[in-house]
Amino acid sequence: VLSIKEADLKKDPACTTGLSNFLLKDHPDENKWADCVHCGMCLESCPTYEITGQEQHSPRGRVHLIKSVAEGRLTVNEQFMDPVFACLDCRACTTACPADVEVGGLIEEARGQIRQAMPLTGLKGTVSKMFLQGLFPHQNRLHTLGSLLKFYQKSGMQKVVRKSKLINIMPQHLVDMESILPEVKEPVRKKYKDVKVIKSRGETKREVALLTGCVMDVMFSDINEATINVLTRNGSDVTIPKNQTCCGALHVHAGDRDMGRKLARQNIEAFKDADKVIVNAAGCGCALREYPELFHDDPEWHEKAEEFSVKVEDISKYLFETGYEIPKAELKTRITYHDACHLAHGQGVRKEPRDLLLNIPGVKMVHMPNSDRCCGSAGIYNITNPEMASAVLDSKMENVPEDVEMISMGNPGCMLQMAIGVQKHGRNQKIVHTVQLLDWAYQKEDGKGEH
Amino acid sequence: MPVKGIKSNDQHIWNLANIVGDARSIIYHKEDLIAYDCDGFTLHRHLPKAVIFPKNTEEVAALVKYCANHQLPFLARGAGTGLSGGAIPLNGEVIISLVRMKKLLSVDYENRRAVVQPGFVNLKLTNSISDKGYYYAPDPSSQYCCTIGGNVAENAGGAHCLKYGVTTNHILGLEVVLPNGQIIEIGANGILDEPGYDLLGLLTGSEGTLGIVTKITVRILKNPESKKTVLAYFDKVEDGSQAVSDIISAGIVPAALEMMDKTAIEGVEAASFPVGHPKDIEALLLIEVDGIEAGLDEQINQIVDVCLTRNVREVRAAKDEAERGRWWANRKTGFGAMGAISPDYLVQDGVIPRSKLPEVLKRINQISEESGLRIANIFHAGDGNLHPLVLFDARKPGQSEKALIAGSACLQVCADVGGTITGEHGVGIEKREEMRFVFTDEEIIAQTEIRDVFNPGNLLNAGKLFPTPGRCVEIKRELKEKETYTKA
Fold first, then answer.
1. What is the mean pLDDT of residues A158-177?
2. CB-based contacts of B286, cutoff 8 Å, min separation 6
3. Which positions 379-438 of B are in contact with A (Cβ < 8 Å)?
4. Nearest residue to B357 (alpha-carbon basis) of B283, B297, B299, B306
5. Rounded mean pLDDT of A375-396?
6. Would you tell me which residues 31-60 of chain A have a C-beta closer than 8 angstroms to some C-beta of chain B?
7. Rounded percentage of chain A residues whose pLDDT exceeds 90
8. Is A14 on the interface with B (CB under 8 A)?
9. Residue B486 has pLDDT above 60, yes or no
10. Is A106 helix (H, G, I), strand (E, B) or coil?
11. A123 band by pLDDT with thresholds 50, 70 and 90
12. How confident is the model at residue A129 (pLDDT cuts 50, 70, 90)?
């Protein structure tokens, strides 16, 4: 006979995490997995589960594995690394989860543990160091690379390489990438390096600081330029704080949390005097907003990071909320919109960019099914996991409507990846950033520009 | 040609991989297998021997034959969202995962049926045919991710089963791999009521103990012309319960009639899809009627009147489809939402005569008080299907056992008032012992004898559905196993 008044119903103290096989420093946050009840509502939202059908490659599976290490049932080793690093960190599961489990944050913490326990060695280690520590955080080196790329494109070398057999010895994903490199222009940080404040066109209503981003400013400086244009046109004075650096998203994604923290501290200091930090790259915006996550063990910086993170805003949301002038010129075009994961899932920004686009006269929006499905770019995932990234991209391209001229989005990584997709699938859409379109409409209104 | 890339000393792993012909279609490292040590029921965990992903029926049959010939225990798994532990590899089974068999094979609008592979996700069927004005009726709350194969195994229900029936009422045909590897088709022409034994009825809800379903013919329905949804808040849970009985007595057959109590409301409001339900009400009803447009408003008025006579605080119809969608998202993610207010939960699945609702709720409340564990209640009130959610924290010693005991006590209450122990989640591991609340030994033996006809070696999903002797001993033994497993 069952009775619930048995002796074993006495109140007992909570367990501690004494069994954990994670290192104490930067220990993954237990509360993040405590919310997961293993219901499985996340499964279908996950691109890597869709492709593999394997639960260690699903959000709840990954959470389960991470929890198992913390419970002492697993150790941090090569086999554990695979599911944790195969995650795109796209955060679609966070949107699907009924209990708000922060899978993305947990994955990043677990990657930090893996990198602490098993530092990268050999070629992978060298390459990773070269990019993550040697390149992205250094403005000058980035600019030099930009100039080299520009030289590569303008000197005719690109043509030579493409015609020669040289291109045949590159891995396919790098060939794909080479072929879609945008035309490199002058970075805005160079252009405005002696300008203290870029003044608003009319009366100054607000003052904002712009994060120029590392890849953004080298590869897509025209988007930064467009961002400055739409801001100054709508009453904002823009400053570009000198000491700003790479947001650190790529480092945190790769498990290098120490470097992530170093960059975070530098940015927090650099933007100390700003009331508003405007970002036009979804991945960077999300990373900046999540700086507090990096300082769990450091109350002083945690507080500073909290103060900083609330100042960060995506350009589309900022314009939507502070109001902007609806362009009068017509841009006759059919476009579709791709939700960058770190905008839609990471920051909950979905309607604002669509609103900007829909308000441009002449723009016809065509719905993209599963528009908030990852494109496979995911930071440098398309370089580190080319095969999976390519499968994710193929699945994305199936949903891109045929009858549009442009695909608009709010993240440079997605732009490169979608450009690869367009080329690989023999399509002809132009890839544009949301603010670029708005800027073109303004330019047309002013009788300038080619659009 | 043997498969390349397998790193294992176990010859079985090599042989199984050869059947599917691809090293990426098998998992055998402990680090990956841990993701398969439980399903939506997390209180029991066991590692499988391997997980293997066949592409077609022939591969399933070959895998089953291999397991049968080598006496390897095996079981089938879909999305692993089951709530009673039906897909947990209690005996270190080889898991045959059907998630890569996920095609919609054909749709026959004229005869209103569709053929799907078992790994096809429930909601995707409705999404694939909705532009033609059709849908698939059984709608378990996990329909965003659960597979139709799993729905067949568990005879899944859902919010709209009050009017439309559960999975078994929508299955027209099955292709099944029997536990000896033989492939049979039942109801091949999709015609109901074939001569001979009702094997469709037997297989549907057999919880993966009689065979592995590899192809399913389901009934599809034309969308109702219109739907209307009402939300009602009650200060007293008794009033809410009475309103449920009154609505049915008035001759209305709602498509759905759902209820949530105070603790459940606290959970869904703290989670990802809040709708702003007041925190101080004791119960809410979500009522949906569908059918021909003309007459629906009249039904809605009748429902509102009933609620008013039962002291409703607030009652209103959804103003548009968006609001209706928000109400349902809030309700359908209710179980997972418990994560927002508790680290773990155990969901029970009792069925009772509707008239006993107030009495049963009172007794569940007592169980909650006595156990010291909170119990949230979400139910398909219209058909008397209760889901008490026992909230606990597995990290606290003793709480898992308390939760199991409290859950079992809830089922005892259901059986006592003339109900039964499961409406739609299945027996699995969780409610094996509770089968004794509703069946005599002879009745249980009659059923295990049927299982033995199909599954004589009991290699397929053994240890599920029927009781084994000595419940308390069992729990203690399993906890001990869990402990050793933790240390291993």
1. 66
2. B229, B230, B231, B256, B257, B258, B259, B260, B327, B328, B331
3. 393, 395-399, 401-402, 405-406, 408-409, 412
4. B283
5. 89
6. 34-44, 52-56, 58
7. 67
8. yes
9. no
10. helix
11. low
12. confident
Q: Which residue of B has its CA nearest to A51?
A: B100
Residue of chain B with shortest Cα separation from A46? B145
Contact B393 A14 (CB under 8 A): yes
Residue B470 has pLDDT above 60, yes or no: no
- Rounded to the nearest 10 degrees, what angle do helices A315-322 and A221-233 cross at? 10
Residue B270 has pLDDT above 80, yes or no: yes
Residues in Cβ contact with B251 at an 8 Å cutoff, skipping those fewer than 6 apart: none
Q: Is the pLDDT of residue A310 over 60?
A: yes
Q: Please answer yes or no on whether A98 and B121 come within 8 Å at the CB atom.
A: no
Which of B99, B395, B397 minimises the CB distance to A53? B99
Q: Read off the pLDDT of each residue in A117-123 and give the average, rounded to a whole number.
A: 78
Tokens of A119: 């530092």
B99 and chain A in contact, CB less than 8 A: yes
Average pLDDT, chain B: 92
Query: Which one, of A198, A233, A215, A205, lies nearest residue A141 by Cα?
Result: A215
Q: Does the CB of B345 have a partner CB in chain A at under 8 Å?
A: yes
Pairing of β A333-337 and β A406-409: parallel
User: Regarding beta strands B385-392 and B344-347, do their DSSP bridges make them parallel or antiparallel, or are they unpaired?
Assistant: antiparallel
Query: Nearest 5°: phi and psi at B103?
Result: -95, 150
Per residue in B139-184, pLDDT (tens digit) is 998 999 999 999 999 999 988 888 999 999 999 999 999 999 999 9
CB proximity list for B290: less than 8 A, separation 6 or greater:
B163, B224, B226, B227, B228, B255, B296
CA of A64: which chain B residue's CA is closest? B35
Q: Do A79 and B29 touch (CB under 8 A)?
A: yes
Q: Determine contact, residues B440/B376, Cβ cutoff 8 Å.
A: no
Distances (CA, A) of A296 to A26, A302, B463: 7, 7, 45
Per CB-CB distance under 8 Å, the chain A contacts of B367 are 4
Dump pLDDT digits (tens) for B392-451: 998 889 999 999 999 999 999 999 999 999 988 999 999 999 999 999 999 999 999 999
Token digits for B120? Answer: 């096809």
CA A289 – CA B16 distance, rounded (Å):
48
Using a pLDDT cut of 90, give the percent of chain B over it: 81
Q: ipTM score here?
A: 0.89
Strands A363-366 and A333-337 turn out to be: parallel
Choose the closest CB to A40 out of B79, B272, B396. B79
Instruction: Choose the closest CB to A10 out of B99, B339, B398.
Output: B398
Return left, alpha or beta for B231; rule: phi > 0 is left, psi -120 to 50 is alpha, else beta.
Answer: beta
Res B365: pLDDT: 93
pLDDT at A167: 60
In this model, does residue A47 exceed pLDDT 60? yes
pLDDT in tens, A199-225: 999 899 999 999 998 878 888 899 999
Write out the two tokens for B440: 């005599």
Q: Which residue has the tokens 């079992």?
A: B408
Indicate whether A293 pLDDT > 70: yes
Question: Among candidates B351, B427, B333, B377, which has minimal Cα distance to B161?
Answer: B351
Q: What is the DSSP letter of A377?
A: -
Is the CB of A19 less than 8 angstroms away from the CB of B471?
A: no
**Partner-chain contact B397 A97, CB within 8 Å:** no
State the pLDDT at residue B39.
96
pTM of the model: 0.89
With contacts defined as CB-CB under 8 Å, which chain A residues touch B402?
Answer: 4, 8-9
Query: In this complex, is the C-beta atom of B275 within 8 Å of any C-beta atom belonging to chain A?
Result: no
Phi-psi map region of A356: left, alpha, beta (phi>0 left; psi -120 to 50 alpha): alpha
- The residue with tokens 């290699």 is B459
